[in-house]
Every structure is written in C-alpha cells, then in structure tokens.
C-alpha cells in the first residue's frame, strides 16, 4: 500500500519550474530518502505533500488523503520536521513539545520525548531563543514524534547535528519504521541516507531523475570500478582491452589503469593483464554513492558527504543515555 503518491506533481513560481511533474510512490512502512542538491525542489515538494503549497499541476495523495483538499487530515497523522524550523523564542523547549501534544490531542509525556531526542532536561526548561542549531533540530524532532505519526516527514533532519545527534536520529528513524511508520527523509547528505533508507529518489532541477534501492544503486555503482595495477614488464594492453566489461585501459609508467563496467569483469581483466606482464600490486577504487549522485545530478551543486556537523555551542548533555 502506498503511504504517499504523487502524479505529475508540478510547482511553478512564475516562469520558474521548481518541481517538474514528479511521480513519487512511497510504500507504507518504508524509509524513503529524498535526495538532491540545494535547490533541487525537495522542500517545495514537501510543502505540497502537506498542503502548505498548492500544486500548479498534478496531485498528491498522502495516507489516503488528497494533500491539497484534505491537508488537515494529512497533517494530523504526519510528524513534520521542516527545513528552517521556526520556534517561539520566548517559550521553552518543553513548552513547545507540550503545546504540540495538546494541538495533536496526543497523550505523550513531553519529558520522554525530550529525553528520546537527547535534549538535556535543563536545556528543555530554557527559552528556545538561545538554542543552537543542533538543539533546535533535536527539539523539532521531538515535536515531529508527537502522537506516534503514521508518516514522518523529515526535511534535512541532520542539519546542524553533531555526530552523536546523527547516530541518535538514525536509531529513532529505525525505531519509527519498526513501529510501522513511513519515513520520508530529505537530505543532500548521502552518507546518512545510505545508512537508513530502503529506497532513495534523487531530485535534480525539479525532476525525479532516479528511484531505486540502495542495493541497486550500489550495484550500478560497482559497475564502474577503476583498477590500478603495477606491473613488472611491458604489458599487452590490447589483450586486456579485449576482455568483456573492460571499458578503458591506459598505461602510465609501470602502472596500468583499467576501468570495468561490472564487478564480474575485475578478475578476468586482471588475469589477462597478469598473463602479459606480472601484476605486482593492485588498488581497486569502487565508485562511491556520491559519484553516482553526481552523475544523476550533473551540473548541480556537489553534495556534502558528511553532515553540517557543526558543534553545538551548548551541546546537550546526553540526557537519555545511548539506549536504542
Ligand atoms: N516561493 C518561491 N518563489 C520563487 N522560487 C522559489 C520559491 N520557493 C522555492 N523556490 C525556488 O525553487 C527551487 C527549489 O527550491 P527548494 O527549496 O524546493 O529546493 P530544495 O531541494 O529543498 O533545496 P534546499 O536543500 O536548498 O532546501 C529553488 O531554486 C528555489 O529558489
């Protein structure tokens, strides 16, 4: 069953097409990574999914509700951590969580949620005006978790988190998925998406340019490995080039560089080379997920490989310990 489905979902701002006819399909219980560099259209899509923006064309169905006409019903069952969370500076963190519980008619214990996201109880009793980015993100996550939502929409949730916060976020996402929630997780940070998501959709320039499981992306990636082999003697490059799956061969001094387009071609290529000149050392560079991402989003801004791991000025003490 789909938790979230869009049909030709489009958003134009004047002449500019921010989201260009995307067809998303996210299964119930799935952890879906919504990837793309800055400006790719992720936040605009999320705003349409939750009824904050009307589509210019197309439609979205979220948890069985029309995202535009029934946005209240969608939002009641969704926990959202928005990009650029806005807080009331004069209210404490705990007051924000308590207010979210009241608004949703939920019966969560605010202190439990605060502990779960790793915000120290003393920090939660302070006004949010002095919060660091990481503390705001933790608080935003606590608010998103209110009422055990059927769908969690997390827009760049790791932004501003330190490594401990990122690990904790991952465990929370996993626990939410185990509970049966669907998690829609937007990010330009590949490393985190790779670790938690069942499938990813890659946005570029407003278009959904790829959708696949991480395993399939990996398989496609390993399709391009570069092998550097140091040889003792003069190799016959033509016989290596003849091996199926070898796409490029070049020689630099005693080093031969081979590019293969599938994992199964690595050993035959090396054997063929070794037959012509003994191979004395080998390094294999399997392309990273980042390389694939760059290929799909070519021309767009290069994504970061790690989070904005900005140290929090007043890093919250680990109130809850490291329980999973
Ligand atoms: N209200 C608006 N008016 C005009 N253009 C807009 C508006 N909102 C977004 N855009 C443009 O639409 C494009 C997509 O923006 P969006 O915020 O959805 O991207 P994103 O993938 O979420 O990027 P980021 O990771 O930077 O948040 C950008 O070029 C942005 O400048």
TrEMBL record:
CDD domains, sorted: ABC_DR_subfamily_A (cd03230)
**SMART domains annotated for this entry?**
AAA
Q: Where is the ABC transporter domain?
A: 4-230
Q: Which GO terms describe its biological process?
A: carbohydrate metabolic process
Mention one GO molecular function. Answer: ATP hydrolysis activity
Q: Keyword annotations for this protein? A: ATP-binding, Nucleotide-binding, Transport
Q: Which Pfam families match?
A: ABC_tran
What Gene3D superfamilies does its record include?
A: P-loop containing nucleotide triphosphate hydrolases
Please state which protein family the record places this protein in. Answer: Belongs to the ABC transporter superfamily.
Please identify the protein, giving its name as recorded. Answer: ABC transporter ATP-binding protein
Q: Where is the composition biased (Polar residues)?
A: 299-308
Region annotation (Disordered) ranges: 295-324
